[in-house]
Specification:
The chain is mostly helical. It has helices at about 20-30, 30-35, 55-75, 90-100, 105-115, 125-135, 150-155, 165, 185-190, 200-205, 215-220, 235-260, 265-275, 280-285, 295-305, 310-325, 335-340, 345-365, 370-390, 390-395, 400-405, 410-420, 425-435; strands at about 220-225, 230, 325-330, 340-345.
Amino acid sequence: MSWSARRENWTPQAEDAREDGDIDYARVIHSASFRRLQGKTQILNLGDSDFYRTRLTHSLEVAQIAGGIARQMVKLFPEHPATALLPDRSMIHAIGCTHDFGHPPFGHGGEVALNYCMRGDGGFEGNGQTLRILARLETFSQSAGANLCRRTMLGVLKYPAPFSAANNPDIEPSLLEGPATIRALDATTCKPPKCYLDSESDVADWILAPLSTQDRDAFTALTPTPGKHAKTRHKSLDCSIMDLADDIAYGVHDLEDAIALGLVTRHAFARAVEPHCGVFLDALKEKYPGESDNDVFSRMVEGLFGDAGSRKRYIGRLVHHFLTAALWEEKAEFAEPLLRWRVTMKGPQRGFLNALQAFVVREVITGPEVQQLEFKGQTMVVAVFEALSAAPARLLPRGVLAAYDAAGGDRRIICDHVAAMTDAHLLRSYERLFSPRMGSVFDRL
């Protein structure tokens, strides 16, 4: 049971010089799911500006950073036994580019909305939907989706536990109590566990088939937390690289967007990060001694909040600082090398990155400007899903209806349809169903 195996038999052309990673990367880049990412929200809603990142540009940056981490590990640890296990660049780029395939329109707000819609029907979670897309919904094979190789799929499997195991049954997705005339989701109860969907349990079994029983049991173990959903404990080597790259892109590039669009102030930023950035300031003093005559911290803040050129220079320095702080971590309980070794980050740099991420969450993501738009997006997602579910024979597109009927009326098919929509597609669908204007059969969705 090779890590190069695919769920559906496929033989490359005799003249094809590509390796597994090259094939998978090509399928990812040429997939409909990859193209849809250009129309999906990262943090800020599409239409606010032409500058900030979408899910597509974010995914490209994650892939690039992940490739950089892999190359950095070769440079830093050329004799380490795990270095020989590193994926080739095409494979880690494929994993990085796919990591957000399953996220629905309107970001995590859409994820919460669809988990509410699918309560009692297996739930919804964006990472689980990514696995479903790659294993079932893409069209590169007859019945295995994109039919990627087993190692790539292991790298995509970010949370190796099914929804039913990770879900706390005491947390039932519900509406907020109190509002009399609107239906407002309770985001706390509607937030899904981190998992794959039970509908892909057979796919997860196939991915993990090469593992011993002991390794599989340890890899899929969960940590229960009272009052919350259970959490998985482990990630594979390739997934750890992607996950670290995602954290760097989230903490640094989303910060860049927030600064460039004037959503955060330099005073708030300085107050939030000053206790945590000493290791970065020390690195700046060492690498750029000509810039250390004045206060290095003030110079960093001024650089980030200055003109576009100085901001980009410091953003690049931040990415480099975090990327070069990667190191190997061993999980000795595993016999399988792809589980035994993973990439992590040195403690001081990790603390600084955590502070940047927390700042973006506090000052941008949970701010009323973003939350008001997220609330509206959630409302539209629920409305469109419930309308399509109420009258599928009348309202579903013919191709989706055929799949729905073939699946015996499984609401997961409707969920797939809504989750795949871009922000604009969802908005047009909502307007077509609910807007008072007349509309036309010639309106394009």
